[in-house]
Amino acid sequence: MADSVTPIGNRYIESNDSDIHFLRTWAVRRCQHTDWDVCERIRLVELQEARDRAAQMEKTMRWWSNCTAEWRNRWSAVRDERNRAREEAETLRYNYDLLLEEREKSIISSQESSPELELRPKLHVAVQTCENAAGNSNFLGKISEIDEQIAAETEFLKDQTFELQKAREKIDADSKIIDELREKVEKMERELQNAGKNKRASSS
């Protein structure tokens, strides 16, 4: 009886493969019965390639996740810093507006008190320009003075907090000593009372 070869479909080989173990038909490549070992090796190679691709995709996804988390943390820090800078700028602008109002009030009061300035408007404009420059420099100087004062007060508060903590620790230690002395006194009083009772009992 002649050996017959029944072609079985193989999905592991491309249509342009010229491997001698695979036969070309009118539509697809076919795997012969005698080539199962080759088909199995190809299947194992494809499985290993799929595992490698999956591992690489997992590494890529993990890398993207870490990058996203780091970016969020950095953006949160930058956003907080931006908000603090915005609040400081608003505070400085508010203080600057207050200083401008005070300067305008002082200029108006000086104009009312000295009529000589009204007779010399050009000189007044020059003086006002100088006062604006001086006001800006004074404003910056005041800001630096305020910062130095805040820093000094912060250091003073830190020192006071440290001294207060030391005082609290000393008070706690003294309280423990007082409690121990009170317990000793109470113990001695109980011993004296017991001794008196024993003495009266023995005398009777």
Automatic annotation (TrEMBL):
It comes from the Eukaryota. Residues 164-198 form a coiled coil. Keywords: Coiled coil. PANTHER family: COILED-COIL DOMAIN-CONTAINING PROTEIN 102A (PTHR46292). This is Coiled-coil domain-containing protein 102A.
